[in-house]
TrEMBL record:
InterPro entries reported in the protein's UniProt record: AAA+_ATPase, ABC_transporter-like_ATP-bd, ABC_transporter-like_CS, ABC_transpr_LolD-like, MacB-like_ATP-bd, P-loop_NTPase
Domain of life of the source: Bacteria
Official protein name in the record: ABC transporter ATP-binding protein
PANTHER family from the UniProt entry: ABC TRANSPORTER ABCH.1, IMPORT ATP-BINDING PROTEIN
GO MF annotation list: ATP binding
Signal peptide region: none
UniProt source species: Geotalea uraniireducens
Keyword set, alphabetical order: ATP-binding, Nucleotide-binding, Transport
A Pfam family the protein falls into: ABC_tran
Regions annotated as coiled coil: none
Length: 231
């Protein structure tokens, strides 16, 4: 089974004279354990692609299936709890890592677990294990303001992984990092994709990082021009 299947996805923002077609007939699939880059110029539709898979942007037409569950078929399917599906099956990593400033590194990770109903003690144990696996156990009680950019991004990765999602979506996760930290983050994502059998989709402009990916999906003017299907 594919982790992500997108068929004929079209997204039109607005209507009438103001309508903007961001994606036209995009189709692709990502397997578990695959690390895929989404590359393309500004305005080409990369974020729309990622947020459609992330259940944030409602597709106008086409089908989106996450881990075997079809969530959209010409718009969201009725009766789905999108928030819950997002929480349970997806993990998000952003450029500006969005850590909660008044929570420690560990608490930033455990908050994702407690929202999903995991008890405090178990959440703490799992959070520490995750931070440990990312080389951050010794920084667990620091607040984001006292973490470096690379450390913050690794905390954000730990948080995205907390619920062992089948699909991880990252928007420019290395853009704010220097080359060395960027490469470390990419190596970590690669390890996690393989080890956890997660599919990871990364929107990036960062050509320095491209060699770390299994596949590059290239987007131009709302159309996928290359790399749509790795099978
Ligand atoms: N909420 C919105 N309302 C109207 N138009 C939008 C909206 N979001 C995106 N667009 C338009 O859709 C097109 C694709 O945008 P999108 O953000 O997906 O591109 P992108 O490749 O991620 O760009 P960037 O690299 O600059 O972030 C652009 O023309 C953009 O202006």
């Amino acid at each position: 089974m594919y982790a992500v299947e997108v068929e004929n996805l079209t997204k039109i923002y607005g209507s009438g004279e103001r309508a903007v077609t961001a994606l036209t007939g995009a189709s692709f699939r990502v397997k578990p354990g695959e690390l895929v880059a989404v590359l393309g110029p500004s305005g080409s539709g990369k974020t729309t692609l990622l947020t459609s898979v992330g259940l944030v942007t409602e597709p106008t037409r086409g089908r989106v299936t996450i881990d075997g569950l079809t969530v959209a078929d010409d718009g969201w399917l009725p009766g789905l709890d999108l928030k819950r599906i997002r929480r349970e099956r997806l993990g998000f990593i952003f450029q500006a890592h969005n850590l909660i400033p008044f929570l420690t590194a560990l608490e930033n990770v455990t908050v994702a677990l407690t929202i999903n109903g995991i008890g405090a003690k178990e959440a703490k144990q799992r959070g520490m294990e995750l931070l440990e696996s990312l080389g951050l156990a010794h920084r667990h009680d620091n607040y984001p303001a006292n973490l470096s950019g690379g450390e913050s991004q690794r905390v954000a990765i730990a948080r995205a992984l907390a619920n062992q999602p089948k699909v991880i979506l990252a928007d420019e996760p290395t853009a704010a990092l220097d080359t060395e930290n960027g490469k470390n983050v990419m190596a970590l994502l690669k390890k996690l994709a393989v080890g956890n059998r997660s599919a990871i989709m990364v929107v990036t402009h960062d050509h320095r990082m491209v060699e770390g990916f299994d596949r590059v999906i290239a987007v131009r003017d709302g159309t996928l021009v290359d790399g749509a299907d790795g099978s």
